[in-house]
Amino acid sequence: MAIEIPTDLTPELVPLSWLLGTWEGQGRLGSGGAGSEHFFQSATFKQDGLPYLQYSAESWLTDEHGTRLRPLTVETGFWALGRKLNEADVGPGLVPAETVPALKSADEVEELRNTNGGFDITATIVHPGGIAELYYGQIKGPQIQLATDMVMRGSQSKEYSAATRMFGLVNGDLFWRWDVAAARGNELEAHASAILKKVA
């Protein structure tokens, strides 16, 4: 499947460009075995000229035929290449960025390539219930691996200590898996997985 790169994409988002768009499809909770509940998800990655992708996803519990039963949850966040921010970047808060991107060419982006041949990335994802995840990981071609560096929980939040996520583009479909440590022992367990198709 050919990947179209928008002409207005800041250079450092090119490695992430295959995520752009809206993806929809079915998934299973837990390990996906017999008895695991079904869900439908719609996930969107978009950009607005700044050096990060905006991410949002909505999920609904479904029956085995895909009929939506009720809302499951939502999450939102920001994905970017891992690099030190400078005066060309917006923030903190409303401090404006310079008018040119921090990395102006493909050659400058290539300098960020890591020893594994990919790029370090960071993702911040926020959930209802007072939970925010800070992930670090790697993107290498159409594959992403993320692991939490920190999970921030509010004083009334449910127990949740760590997570990993994997994403991959396979024959034009977005496959993902999410493992979570949210029970006694703080061990990572299969939480959910899905196969999403790009919406035209």
Automatic annotation (TrEMBL):
InterPro entries: Calycin, Nb(III)_bact/plant, Nitrobindin, THAP4-like_heme-bd. Residues 12-198 form the THAP4-like heme-binding domain. Its cofactor is heme b. It is an enzyme of class 5 (isomerase). It comes from the Bacteria. Pathway: Nitrogen metabolism. This is Peroxynitrite isomerase. It comes from Arthrobacter deserti.
